């Protein structure tokens, strides 16, 4: 059992009001709130340590470098990577996915080669491949799903051809909450000699991830969705793959030596980290990892599973509700529509009751097309949410429904 009251006290924003009502924050799949421990670490670093990292000989620079590199080790441990060489800091999941799409295509894909993605991808795992399609003539093949929101693995197997060069799938859908069987997806891809990139934006906040056990070749996630700062994310890659990929961007920090005749790139992971990194955000991310590790990922998972089950049960009471995503492996996200009430109307009126949910296509328009809808209302949970908040949501939805 989590001590929710103590946890909520760590998040000052949760006790504020909106429109004179207690805030019920259920937009965690978009971004989570930050505990004091993270915010204070960031402030403290700016007040007391701030200096650019890596090449400075002076005291502050070395201290900032230590914090930055300690954060890399924390991330390594958090996802159980073999080595810190495999942990690349980026601006977020989107940048991590773009990095792989761009560098992988540059090195390993020719016109006519294929990438496999799924129908439930976030735009950030579709558009980077489309950019490569426009540039290089690669093509994109799509794993379909069932009406319950589960990927069809038999159809997936049929998508492989001799031109398949990489598979890129989301670990958890940000709309349906489906936890995809990535281990199985990876095993099948590896049987075809094809590497797999996993979008972990919606898994890392909710359950323990072990990249070695999963055996993914690349794994991307964002700090801000797991109680860390915005603007910082991670790309994990197996060293063997990262060694073979060309740099994504050029500049300072990513080189060993530069002359107009020849430039030698830095070793991993720095080869992929051009420019001054957000070393304060990496420290903030490390504090977020400390925070959730102290609570225990298993405890967080148990609590959120209970919340999700409770939400499915309570929301099913609402007359005329359609819930999208009914896989038994569902995580912390409930998307729905009620009757013919527009998602935007529902979201706007819930907001007036102090309930923050997200409405729209959730950056997954191909999934909306598959579902035959324009958008949904989405409630998404974090470790600090309570069953009482789900009751408030349920009553809110009923109240709004009565207005139409
Ligand atoms: N993938 C998924 C599944 C997501 O939910 C999100 C964020 N909504 C992203 C990628 C993109 O993450 P970011 O905006 O932090 O780069």
UniProtKB/TrEMBL annotation:
InterPro entries: Aminotrans_V_dom, Aminotrans_V_PyrdxlP_BS, Cys_dSase_SufS, Cysteine_dSase, PyrdxlP-dep_Trfase, PyrdxlP-dep_Trfase_major, PyrdxlP-dep_Trfase_small
Domain Aminotransferase class V: 24-393
Assigned keywords, A-Z: Pyridoxal phosphate, Transferase
One Pfam family recorded for the sequence: Aminotran_5
Principal EC category: transferase
Record GO terms (molecular function): cysteine desulfurase activity; pyridoxal phosphate binding
Family matches, as PROSITE patterns: AA_TRANSFER_CLASS_5
GO biological process: cysteine metabolic process
Keyword Transferase belongs to the record: yes
Keyword Glycosyltransferase annotated: no
Cofactor(s) demanded: pyridoxal 5'-phosphate
Enzyme Commission (EC) number: 2.8.1.7
Reaction(s) catalysed (UniProt annotation): (sulfur carrier)-H + L-cysteine = (sulfur carrier)-SH + L-alanine
Family per record: Belongs to the class-V pyridoxal-phosphate-dependent aminotransferase family. Csd subfamily.
UniProt function note: Catalyzes the removal of elemental sulfur and selenium atoms from L-cysteine, L-cystine, L-selenocysteine, and L-selenocystine to produce L-alanine.
Protein known as: Cysteine desulfurase
Organism field: Marseilla massiliensis
């Amino acid at each position: 059992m989590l001590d929710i009251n103590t946890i909520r006290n760590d998040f000052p924003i949760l006790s504020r009001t909106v429109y004179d009502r207690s805030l019920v924050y259920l937009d965690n799949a978009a971004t989570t709130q930050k505990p004091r421990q993270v915010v204070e670490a960031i402030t403290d670093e700016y007040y007391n340590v701030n200096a650019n990292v890596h090449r400075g000989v002076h005291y502050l620079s070395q201290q900032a470098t230590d914090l930055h590199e300690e954060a890399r080790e924390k991330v390594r441990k958090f996802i159980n990577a073999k080595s810190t060489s495999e942990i690349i800091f980026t601006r977020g999941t989107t940048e991590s996915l773009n990095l792989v799409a761009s560098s992988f295509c540059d090195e390993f894909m020719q016109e006519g080669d294929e990438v496999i993605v799924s129908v439930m991808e976030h735009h950030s795992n579709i558009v980077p491949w489309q950019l490569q399609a426009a540039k290089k003539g690669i093509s994109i093949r799509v794993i379909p799903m069932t009406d319950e929101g589960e990927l069809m693995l038999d159809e997936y197997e049929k998508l492989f051809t001799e031109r398949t060069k990489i598979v890129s799938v989301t670990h958890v859908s940000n709309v349906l909450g489906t936890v995809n069987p990535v281990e199985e997806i990876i095993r099948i891809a590896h049987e075809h000699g094809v590497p797999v990139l996993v979008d972990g934006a919606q898994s890392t906040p909710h359950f323990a991830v072990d990249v070695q056990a999963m055996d993914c070749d690349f794994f991307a996630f964002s700090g801000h969705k797991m109680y860390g700062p915005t603007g910082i994310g991670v790309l994990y890659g197996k060293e063997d793959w990262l060694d073979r990929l060309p740099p994504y961007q050029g500049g300072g920090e990513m080189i060993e030596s530069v002359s107009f005749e020849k430039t030698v790139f830095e070793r991993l992971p720095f080869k992929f980290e051009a420019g001054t990194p957000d070393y304060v955000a990496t420290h903030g991310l490390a504090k977020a990892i400390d925070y959730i590790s102290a609570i225990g990922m298993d405890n967080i998972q148990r609590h959120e599973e209970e919340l999700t089950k409770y939400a499915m049960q309570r929301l099913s009471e609402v007359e005329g509700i359609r819930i999208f995503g009914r896989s038994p492996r569902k995580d912390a996200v409930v998307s729905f529509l009620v009757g013919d009430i527009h998602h935007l109307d529902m979201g706007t009126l819930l907001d007036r009751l102090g309930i923050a949910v997200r409405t729209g296509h959730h950056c997954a328009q191909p999934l909306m097309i598959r579902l035959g809808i324009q958008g949904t209302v989405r409630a998404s949970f974090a470790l600090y949410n309570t069953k009482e908040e789900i009751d408030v949501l349920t009553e809110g939805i009923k109240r709004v429904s009565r207005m139409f």
